[in-house]
Design brief:
about 450 residues, mainly alpha, about 75% helix
């Protein structure tokens, strides 16, 4: 009698649970190795938390989590409590005996092995319940904290306490306030919502803060050109004011300051275009890509010519002394949000009453203030004008803002060396107006 052939023999694969167990063991072992290397680098005795101990703690956490099977995880919590008591006893004993293995409590080093042990105990649940990217991120952070102590200490000593407070403000702005704001529209603003307003605040604050950090800490005594480059990423108008004031007080700064002012304006175009992409306005970014690119490249070329001329006159690099203002102050963010809503309301009224022609006049006037909230309000709202009219308004506002900067550069510096830069800024306004007229005619 014929027999039916059975399925082809396939090699047995390891069960997922075995792979998870192996991962927990390996990760605990790696933590133990890193802690051991850290202690050797600090000339500390082995003490509590050897490689074997941390590996067994990781195994215990895996097994107890697995045996519980469901909430409330009584066995796992009992194991965690026992480990906490054990670590506390070891800390107290080390403090009383003054053992060589106990790091100085002054720098918090005595808590480090205990925290690594708690992390090893949590690796089992992490492996079984969380995605691999999160597990890798946790392990990378732990290894960096152990391996890069000198670098972390240098950074901690270099960064003032105020910067930590500022970073906390940004986390509150982005991570706490933004998720709580509703999507309900604000009356009279063209469909603008509080969530959209605050999202724009977060994006602008983030870009400005990164440029501020680079300017303050990466190039604290950078050249005048660095001031224009990085200053234009958070406020080209503020950078122009700083450069013009320094040019007035220091004759050596006047010639390179013109190049830096033009460079700051070039960075304004790049910053606005990146903000459009970050907020999801791809169509607007595409519509402005050509004029912004032309103005950006033209400004870079003019800045290069002015910089080479300044280098011929004075080869010694001029240094910017005035530090940039932190752009992440909470009152600044609130003022930006208020201006955002105000411009949206005014724009909604003007477009409904006067149409596209009224918007062009409004955009010209808005350029003599902070153009960021005006431009972003144009993108976020739904107004009674075409997309081409909004594109023209963005160009006109940026051009009239350049006219304002030209006035600042000449009035505050009182030096003829900044006249070529001011003339180029005026020319960018004329080019922007010519582009909008050509687009309207087409």
């Amino acid at each position: 009698m014929a027999t039916r052939a059975g399925p082809a023999h396939e090699p047995e694969r390891p069960a997922p649970l075995l792979l998870q167990f192996a991962a927990a063991v390996v990760l605990s072992f790696v933590l133990g190795l890193e802690l051991h290397s850290y202690r050797r680098a600090q000339d500390e005795a082995i003490g509590f938390g050897t490689t074997r101990t941390l590996t067994l703690i990781g195994v215990a956490g895996f097994v107890l989590w697995l045996l519980d099977g469901a909430m409330p995880r009584g066995l796992y919590l009992m194991g965690l409590a026992a480990l906490a008591v054990w670590l506390a006893v070891d800390l107290v004993r080390g403090a009383r005996t003054g053992a060589a293995s106990a790091p100085s409590a002054a720098d918090g080093g005595a808590l480090l092995p205990a925290m690594i042990a708690l992390l090893a105990y949590a690796l089992g649940p992490l492996v079984m319940t969380q995605p691999s990217w999160l597990i890798a991120a946790v392990l990378i952070v732990a290894i960096l904290m152990l391996a890069e102590k000198p670098l972390i200490r240098r950074v901690s000593d270099a960064v003032p306490l105020a910067e930590g407070v500022t970073l906390g403000k940004f986390i509150a702005i982005a991570g706490l306030v933004l998720p709580l704001l509703p999507e309900a529209t604000i009356p009279g603003t063209g469909g603008l919502s509080l969530a959209r307003v605050w999202l724009a605040v977060v994006v602008m604050s983030g870009i400005s803060y990164l440029a501020y950090l680079a300017h303050t800490y990466a190039f604290p005594r950078g050249s005048v050109l660095i001031t224009g480059l990085l200053g234009g990423l958070y406020s080209s108008t503020a950078a122009t004011v700083v450069l013009a004031r320094q040019a007035r007080s220091e004759a050596a700064v006047a010639a390179p300051a013109g190049a830096a002012v033009v460079l700051a304006t070039a960075m304004m175009y790049l910053r606005l275009w990146l903000v459009f992409l970050a907020l999801g306005h791809v169509a607007m970014a595409r519509a402005l890509a050509l004029p912004f690119a032309a103005l950006l490249l033209g400004s870079l070329a003019v800045a290069g010519v002015l910089w080479r001329r300044a280098q011929r006159e004075s080869p010694a690099p001029a240094v910017a002394h005035e530090p940039p203002r932190n752009p992440l102050d909470l009152p600044v963010a609130l003022l930006f949000a208020a201006l955002f809503v105000l411009f949206a309301a005014v724009t909604n009224f003007v477009t409904e009453t006067f149409g596209a022609s009224g918007l062009r006049w409004l955009s010209f006037a808005a350029g003599f203030s902070d153009i960021d909230p005006f431009v972003l309000s144009l993108l976020a709202g739904h107004f009674a004008v075409s997309e081409a009219a909004i594109t023209a308004a963005v160009l006109i506002a940026s051009g009239s803002n350049n006219l304002l900067k030209a006035g600042y550069a000449l009035a505050l510096s009182r030096r003829r060396a900044l006249l070529p830069a001011a003339l180029w800024l005026v020319l960018t306004l004329l080019l922007s107006l010519a582009w909008t007229r050509w687009q309207a005619a087409g």
